[in-house]
Structure formats: C-alpha cells, structure tokens
Specification:
CATH class of the largest domain: Alpha Beta
CATH topology of the largest domain: Rossmann fold
Number of domains: 2
Structural class: alpha/beta
Family: Belongs to the ComF/GntX family.
Number of strands: 6
Largest sheet: 4 strands, parallel
Strand order of the largest sheet: 1-6-5-2
Order of helices and strands: HHHEHHEHHEHEEHE
Number of helices: 9
Protein name: ComF family protein
C-alpha cells in the first residue's frame, strides 16, 4: 500500500514532468539529463535564421514604410508541418510555456553574440493577450519567450505598459489586410511613464504579416518610446 510520503513524491515527480518534459518536443524520444525540451538531433535540425545578415535576412523589410523600427530579428523559420510549428503548438496549446522560455534563452544567446544593436535596449515587452484569452490559455506565450530572452540578454521584462483592449478571434486564417483591420485599434498604453524615453523591444511568437507588431510598435512610439525593435521566435517562410 502506498504511503503518504510515496504519494507526495509521485505527485511531485508528475508535476515536474509536466513542467519539464522528459520527452523531446520534436520527436517524442526520451531526453537525456543534459538535454532541454529537444534532443540533440532535433536541436541540430532547427531551421535557425542567419542573424549575421541584416535583420534576419530581410525580416525588417516587412515593416518598411509602415513603422520605424530599430531592428527586427527572428530566430527560426516557420513552415507548415515542420518542427517549429510543432514547437509553437506545444507552447501555445499544450501548456509547454517553459519551452517558450528555453527557446527565448537560446535566441538571446545567439543575439548577444551576433547582434550588437540589441545591447542598447532598456525593456522587453511581450505582445499582450486579452485577459479573457490569457485566462483561457493560462499564460501569455510571448511573455514566457521574453523571460528566456531576458535571462540571456539581462534586459528586464515589462508586463504592464501595453495592453490589449478588445477580445478578437484568432487571426490564423486572416489575410494581411484583414489582420491589420482586426488589430489596428486593439492595443493601448497602460503605463506611459514606464516606457517614455526607453529603447523597447517587442516580443512575439511568430511573425506572419507583421500587423500585430506594427500596431503595438505604433502605440509605443506615440507614447514616447525612444525606439522600438522587434524579436520573434519564428517567422513564416
């Protein structure tokens, strides 16, 4: 018969397994003690962008003529049915928020080594979710990615300056024009004093049309930010 101590130990182990999966999020093989979220084979296969080229090989071009950005970098290339899509799905819909922090940390170390323009930033801000959506999901995946970036870059995260004021349906199936119409008036500044004169970096999970980030950046610049840069975990091919 299981003792109370054994029950508590098993419950704790199950909780740890939930937060820190023992299987690879890419291929489901067991991880070794030295591996985090991905096995070595899957991590090697990650389609990492070339950060030595200007703004991740043209990511910044998506914002050209729309909103003035300091820079725009993406860590991974997102393609349908690829490993990056599986990772994003695990983070957003399977509760693997810690995976977002780990990938953010890996991204941060790459940026620290290759992108000197990052060093001047003062704050990281994750694209906010509406409170209803955040309650449904249990967390904001962009803020968890920002946590990982913060650990690597030593730049603090601000979670109060920017807010989403209107609940919107998913934009996954919307085109570029529809996405912009859907988000252009959705974001507002909640704490202008904390960002005035600051060099801010916006964080999001996947860059598609850039409409959401453009809307956020516009609000931040209007509120008095010295500059805004963009970092996304992935960018759609």
């Amino acid at each position: 018969m299981e003792t109370l101590l054994q029950f508590i130990k098993r419950a704790c182990n199950n909780f740890v397994d939930l937060l820190y999966p023992v299987s690879c999020l890419g291929c489901s093989e067991n991880l070794t003690p030295n591996e985090e979220i991905l096995c070595v084979q899957c991590r090697v296969k990650l389609p990492v962008t070339d950060l030595t080229k200007t703004s991740s090989s043209g990511v910044a071009l998506q914002f050209a003529g729309k909103v003035p950005l300091d820079f725009a970098y993406s860590y991974l290339v997102f393609s349908k049915k690829g490993i990056v899509q599986r990772l994003i799905h695990q983070i957003k819909y399977k509760g693997q928020k810690e995976a977002g922090a780990v990938l953010g940390r890996w991204f941060g170390y790459e940026l620290k080594e290759k992108c000197q323009d990052i060093a001047e930033a003062n704050l990281l801000i994750g694209v906010p979710l509406h409170p209803v959506r955040e309650r449904q999901r249990g967390f904001n995946q962009s803020e968890w990615i920002a946590k990982g970036l913060s650990e690597a870059l030593k730049i603090p995260v601000n979670t109060t300056a920017l807010k989403r004021t209107r609940f919107e349906a998913s934009q996954t199936r919307k085109g570029k024009g529809a996405r912009w119409e859907n988000v252009k008036d959705v974001f507002a500044i909640a704490d202008a004093e904390s960002i005035q004169g600051k060099r801010v970096i916006l964080i999001d999970d996947v860059l598609t049309t850039g409409a959401t980030l453009e809307a956020c950046a516009s609000q931040l610049l209007k509120a008095g930010c010295a500059s805004v840069g963009v970092l996304t975990l992935a960018a759609a091919r």
